[in-house]
Predict the 3D structure of the following.
Amino acid sequence: MLSTPAAQAQDAASRTSRPAPRPESPFGSGLPLRRRLRAAWAWIRENLFSTWYNGILTVFTLGLLYLALKHGLRWVLLEARWAVIPANIQPLMVGTYPRAQLWRVWAVLATLALLSGLSAGAFGARLKRAAAWGAGIAAAFLLLPLSAVSRAMVLACAGLYGAGLLGARGRRALRPWLVGAWFLSFPWTLFLLWGVQGSQLLPRVETSWWGGLLLTLILAVVGICCSLPIGILLALGRRSSLPAISWCCTAFIEVVRGTPLVAVVFMAHLLVPLFLPDFRIDKVVRAMIGFTVFTSAYMAENVRGGLQSVPKGQYEAALALGMNSPLMMVLVILPQALRAVVPSIIGQFISLFKDTSLVAIIGLLDLLGVARSVIANPQWLGLQAEVFLFAGLIYWVLSYTLSRSSRRIEKALGVAGRR
Amino acid sequence: MTQAADPIIICEDVHKWFGDFHVLRGISVEIRRGEKVVICGPSGSGKSTFIRTLNRLEEHQKGRIVVDGIELTSDLQDIEAIRREIGMVFQQFNLFPHLTVLQNITLGPIWVRKMKKSEAEELAMSLLERVGIPEQAHKYPAQLSGGQQQRVAIARALAMQPKIMLFDEPTSALDPEMIKEVLDVMRELAHSGMTMLVVTHEMGFAREVADRILFFDQGQIVEEAPPAEFFDAPKQERTKLFLSQILHH
């Protein structure tokens, strides 16, 4: 078989991503019961009671865990009044997005599911792992108290994902198309959700109707997608040999980094209309601008750290080949610089995702905002714990998914091993 | 030499300062097409700095350098044009760690020389054959030994089809048993008629391959002679001292 260098790179990447064999775990292996018990006992002795103070710590921790779990679990399973969640699931998910137009949200989800499936297939994810991810996400959705119709939609999305996964398996030729499709998916999503003024099929849904998790995700994704390229440009600008450019970039970065996010969001809300009085810029768009401005300054500093980690010899080797500066940056320096700072970039994304809850101060109802308005409703008085726990759980699931993906990306790029 | 009268590099009274430190103090030398020149001298004598001024990785502050008919000024276009004609091999290899061996070699031809990818890969494979490691094409630099990495670096420089090759202490970072494999490649290259400037401490290589040896000390060319004369009958005291130190240590 003829294999291209890209294929080889892929192979190498998947090879490095395979986890090292773990030390024998006493649980769940196919040994006979007596030996398994003995192994388990050895494991407990070795890991929990290796010294007398470790033993005391273990007992103490177990005690604390017992107390916390005893009351916590009793509350979660018996005392909490979870009815508030299903009753408000729609505002929590999409805010006040019109019920009759909800199919557009599903259409977006279906698009993303299909694209994810196709990408997982075409980019050579291992079938079992990709299927497990798809099934896991679908199961998480199904655990939500959704209506029967919505559940059917989730299953349909899962079906699309699976179809894409199987259909695109091993088709490398699809890769460039998929990259393009992901770029287009973004305007496509906004187009679907926003609609067209005066259209029958896709009537305009003003952004003031958007809310809940939908708004949270849109703000986060826009912030992430815009702040990375802007951050890279700022970082390069800061290192520019032209003093005007480097001074402007440095000033921007330092001013923004010296300002709290709340203030930036607030200023974007108040100042953008002042500076651009001729345009009526949407509230949500102003929030997006605020988050992008704030995050791009931090992103620039992350990227700068990455640029500094690239040895001088790399610049010299690129120059010696006759490359000009842009070529050198794009082909040689940035790939290495960004690789080195993937963890801090993803960390920045996670904190951006959580910080979107600050849009409450400019009157937008994101997931947390909706949660707050739910508990302000007299009908659901006194149910803060349930509602916030639910919102917190959603934030955690998504953040954790992001941080897991960071580790996957690091491994795939060989951040640790290739140098 | 067949084209003896035709200098490809002309240096006239080249000076360079690092801050207050006067690294190059008036270097004047002409290199003919196809000539192999070995530059040696004690560390800190400016020999590396000198060959790095030839493709303007270092800027000279006084004097004139003309490479293949183009004078090195601050004109970026000229500099890039000259760099395309000059291959450089570094002491620390400086391979691109995020690219495979094949991608390392094809990067310049594809993006700078605008060669077709298939052509560039064919060229790269033939160069890997030439340096003796075609089987490593799809590995990453970190998976190769130092000697193999340096041979890839030579192939990468040759892929730009340069007229001149600069070697900046190509074997100094290598384990002793790997030096020979790199020198063998350089020997073969010398016999193919390439113009080469080599900064090295490998005196055996210098004696065998060089047409001329330049001895640097304190930023000046102290002695300049064909190898036989340089090794057997050096004129300057400084040269004699240097030779006695490196030949009888």
Remarks:
- The two ends of chain A are 29 Å apart (CA to CA).
